[in-house]
Structure formats: C-alpha cells, structure tokens
Write a structure and sequence with these properties.
Elements (H helix, E strand, L loop, with lengths): L34 H9 L4 H13 L13 H12 L3 E2 L4 E3 L13 E9 L32 E7 L12 E7 L4 E6 L1 E2 H13 L3 H14 L9 E5 L4 E14 L5 E15 L1
Antiparallel strand pairs: 1-3, 2-3, 3-4, 4-8, 5-6, 7-8, 9-10
Helix pairs in contact: 1-2, 4-5
Length: about 270
Amino acid sequence: MSRRLSRLAGALALSCAALLAVPATAAAEPAPVDPLAQAIAALQGQGGASLEAANAIADSRTPVAEDARTDPFAALNAANKALTDFGITPFFYPTAAINCAATGASPLGIVPGVAGGAAGPWPQLAVPSIPTLPGLPPLKIPDLNAVDKGETMFAFVPAGIVNDSADKTGMQVAWFNVNTLKGGFADFGGLATTLAQSMLANSGIPNELKGMAEPLVVNAINSLPAAGARAVPVETGSGTVLAAVFGTVNHKALDGTAKSCFFFPTVGLINVA
C-alpha cells in the first residue's frame, strides 16, 4: 500500500495477552517468557523509534487486565460495541479520562474510552456504483480496504464526547512488532475521514472520481460514532504486534466549556498476517 495520510508508526508487541496480568505461579513452574522484554534487551544500544515504542508499551502495562467487554459503564459498552460491530478487536482493558465529561452527570467527570485494532486486509467494504456522465456505464468501485496485508488499522472511541469537531489531534498509538523488532508511533485522525481517504487511496479509481466517491464511503462507515472516534493506519508488517493507545482529546461540553482530557494508556495485541 502506498503511504497515505500521516502514518508515523507506533505500537508494541507481546506473544500472549495473559502476560499483561500474570498470575502467581507455583514454585515448581518456570517463569513465563516475556517476548517484549526479550525484544527490548535485543534492541538495547540501537536507539531509534522501535526501542522507544517498545519501552512505551512496557511502561503502559498494568497488573490488572480488565476485559473491555465487562466494563460496567453503559456508555463504554456502547463504544466497545461500535468497535466490534465494525470488525475491530478491542484492546485488553478500557481507559478513562477524569474531569472530561460533556455533562455534569458523570461522577468526577469520568469519560471511559476503548481502543482496538484490525489487521489487514480490512474492512473489505463494498459501496454502490458511482453514476458517471450520460451515455457512459456507471463506475463500480471495487471492495475497499483501508489497510492491506501487513498493515493494521488502530481505532479509539471515547464515550460521552459530543463536540470535538474543531480538533482531532492529541491521541497516538505506540506499536511494536515482536517478530521484526520494528516499531514506532502514529498520530490518530478523525475516523470517517481517515478511513475514507485510506480506502480511496487503495481503490485504484481515477483521481478525478475520488471526490465523488468519498461521500459514499463516509456514509458507508458511519456506523461508528462520529464524535470522539479516531483512527490511524500503520504499516506494522506481518507478525505479533502489541500496541498502546494514549493521549489527549479536546472537545466542548454542552455549555460550551472547552475540555482537554488525557486518556491513560490501554494495551492490545493484534496478529497481523
């Protein structure tokens, strides 16, 4: 896939999700092997984005890996369902920001959020034919992929965000491929625009028709909530990829008050073909 948008790289890697919450083991059992720690050791002295991303992921791991699907917040469940319905695998546990809610109803202004990833080819979305000039047959757009084989689409959906239209910057993903020892960081963009531009960049349709196609693609992916939702495609390469999503969401409360909310890291694992 050609480089598109502003794909910087970023995310991490582990061979097993259970390593995020390793239980106590009997003395006779060998200690579990942590491939991320092994990768960091192998990269010591080399520096660069891969080592920085691996360390960022290691620092983000928590001893409690709560499954995002069991979170008690109804709003978080809705955000999580938005990801799964769209074929994006949620990360191991949700995240949250304090003093961030658009209304005063939430205790401490807590806004939960969920992140996830989808390995390419994804989402193999089909859209209707585009009408062309009179007398010419309509142009059928092929199935569209935002990410191809060897790439990953990362997504983040905070719950309770009602107006962030002015600024989609602030969230990022750190990624690391355990098999290739490559990694880095990438900045999120608005979900609908990111997916539409990525899909059209891979569609092979003439540039002069992409403007006509983009509204159709945006409408086809509007099953995810527009407010707050973010995405970024990353050339992770094939292998076991661990990722941590974190950063800031700027939005406005219902009374117009500006909010700047920091979401703590959440970590996930994606097997990329």
